[in-house]
Design a protein that fits this description.
Number of domains: 3
Largest sheet: 4 strands, antiparallel
Radius of gyration: 27 Å
Helix content: 10-25%
Structural class: alpha+beta
Distance between the termini: 100 Å
Number of strands: 32
CATH superfamily of the largest domain: YVTN repeat-like/Quinoprotein amine dehydrogenase
CATH architecture of the largest domain: 7 Propeller
Mean pLDDT: 86
Low-confidence stretches: 1-5, 36-41, 58-68
Number of helices: 3
Amino acid sequence: MAEQPKKPQKNKKTTQKRRQIQRVQRIQRILNRINAFRLPVNENLFQTIVKLTVTTAAVAAIAFVCLSDADISVRGIIRGYRDKSVLSHAAGQGYPAELNGSRSIDAETVSHGTAVLTDTAYTVYDVKGRELISQPHYMASPAMKTADRYTLLFDRRGTAYALKTLSGSVCSGTTDHTIVAGAVSRSGRFALVTNYDTAHSYVNVFTKNGKSLHKWKSGSYHISDISISPSGHTVAMCGVTTQDGKLKSVVIIQKVGGSANLREYTFEDTLLFAVRFTSDSSVTAIGDDKAVRLRVNEEKAQVYSYAGRTLTGFDVSDNGNLALAFSAHSDGQNTGVVVLNTACEEVANLSTALISPDMELTNSRINLISQSRFYSYNLDGKLMASADIPADSQSVLTSGDKILIRGITTISEAS
């Protein structure tokens, strides 16, 4: 039998290129028709518009996810589903709620309610005050930071840490040296500051799954506080040292994964002890005699001097405003509250005559508790509400539409 001639094989690259050219030509013909206002108004046009709208929305959603460092892995999607399923299993009668532990330490808002840290447990309540989860933490000096759905627990002066959501622990571990400070972002990235053998401080930034992204050693300053931007791409820290017998403070801003400081601001004869990101590009630092506003793209810092007043408390609102509580005396009596906008300008000045109140600043209110009383003022200084509260009240916070009072063993609504 005669051998059959072989069929010529098609070149795959040539075929793919031809298809790409044909696709481009089809798109060009459609664009030409649109530009000439000759696209027919019919069912095909409607379908085309729908497809374009859906595609645009999908692209925008993907871009948002990428820029926000959201977790779209299978593990992240499952974790989000489990977080939501926990909401359907809330238990309890609501506020007031008895806390799990003998002494409360902190309370912060999270995306589904309120997280409360006690000496023995971490508990989350939904917006109605029903218990969603409660877990022991086994930390001697527990501290907590929250952002959106994430909570970072760490043992201050210990080595243990854990990143949590409603569905449980996202990651956990221990550091080689004792932890000094921590921070978490809305993206789930978190940062820890520890002591170190060959440096004053050691900074490490992690992914939500516990992988190290950024490491930095400070040989000159003792880093006292750290903050991470909402996207998780930038960190800011404040530290202190002594030079010629005088205090010297610094605020350092770094890009996660970068090898050099984006900004470094130094302040003589002052003690900066807290730092907060108010946006991805704006940072606020709090000191014993001044507050400082910084921007990543600006070299000059904006400074607000306390003018000899004693700082008794501070808070930063979601819109970036800063509230500072001052007393003219070192004993904290006759406290007044000043609110600064993002330009470091006074927008409110409130005389309360309270003794060292705990304070919360929202976008529209200043909430204060002192001497078994709760007070709420608008930013014009008008008293909007007041009420008696338990004598053991420790702090005030807003969660959803409720104003909550954290006591030593209970958390309740301000009536």
